[in-house]
Amino acid sequence: KTYKLIRNLITPNKPSEKTFAEVVELVQQHQHPKPSVQRFTFNTRFRKPGESIASYVAELRSLSEHCDFKSTLEEMLRDRLVCGINDEQIQRRLLAEISLNFKKAIKIATSMETAVKNSRDLTHQIANANINTEKPATLHRVDNQGQGNQPWSKPECGRCGGKHDPQQCKFRDAECFRCHKKGHIARKCRSNTKTTGKINEATILNQALAATI
């Protein structure tokens, strides 16, 4: 790996064309670049899309290692964080601070980042909850023997009392001998009006028996 590094540093020249001292100097410059180069890299480092505040701060600290900022290190880190935050709302909030140091800038930026994330998560949860409530529910019943869920059986016919659709009932046009109205038989009559005359009990019985067929 060392030879490959030397060859890359010397290219387009060959290692044999350089003295040992020249090779050592090239390697040292690579491993410990001049502060001006490091500062350029530091000052052009912006937060990438999707990069967290914590990761960006860690990267700035790493880049500042060989910048030789000395006593101005904290100020340079603060300024780079504010300028390179790549978030307009957070940047405005930081610039609004009258007295802002690096530690305070990190606290404000991370707090706002967390607030935005929590808001998005809450909105997503509410949206999912609304979708789930819009789904039609399927009614089931559980029998006493615990045989699992079964669909509801057909409702009782209001015309004759059978288990079928009232629209398909054969007594749909029948005349009730209790209220003399069409559409049902006597056993399903809901009329409270007293009838005049004697009701043919045999006919009512026949209607009831026919409903069970």
TrEMBL record:
PROSITE patterns: ZF_CCHC. It comes from the Eukaryota. GO terms for molecular function: nucleic acid binding; zinc ion binding. This is LOW QUALITY PROTEIN: uncharacterized protein K02A2.6-like. It comes from Paramuricea clavata (Red gorgonian). The lineage of its organism: Eukaryota, Metazoa, Cnidaria, Anthozoa, Octocorallia.
